[in-house]
User: Which sequence fits this backbone?
């Protein structure tokens, strides 16, 4: 349906403990993305986009902070379910803004 991620510089991310499984697929940009998830429950934890090798996307659900900041943008907004209303003021991209 949709996901929320926070992107961090790869050299600022430290992974500790636990085991993960991974799944690699192509994306609309033509570059692969590798997703890392919990092999027991299937929760998506982080992903590494090949087109942005300097960044790591971390699933917002991996943070236990109810005050986690709101996303800055929505991508693939044209593909969202019509019942999903985005917060006021969020930048919308009809598709993925490939730079």
Assistant:
């Amino acid at each position: 349906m949709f996901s929320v991620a926070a992107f961090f510089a790869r050299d600022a991310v430290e992974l500790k403990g636990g085991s993960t499984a991974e799944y690699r697929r192509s994306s609309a940009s033509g570059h692969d993305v590798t997703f890392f998830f919990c092999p027991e429950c299937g929760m998506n934890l982080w992903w590494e986009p090949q087109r942005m090798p300097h960044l790591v996307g971390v699933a917002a659900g991996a943070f236990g902070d109810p005050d986690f900041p709101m996303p800055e943008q929505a991508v693939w907004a044209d593909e969202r379910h019509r019942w999903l209303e985005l917060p006021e003021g969020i930048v919308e991209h009809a598709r993925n803004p490939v730079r």
In short: The chain has a mean pLDDT of 87. The longest strand covers residues 21-26. The radius of gyration is 14 Å. The beta strands are 5-9, 21-26, 32-37, 44-49, 55-59, 73-74, 91-92.
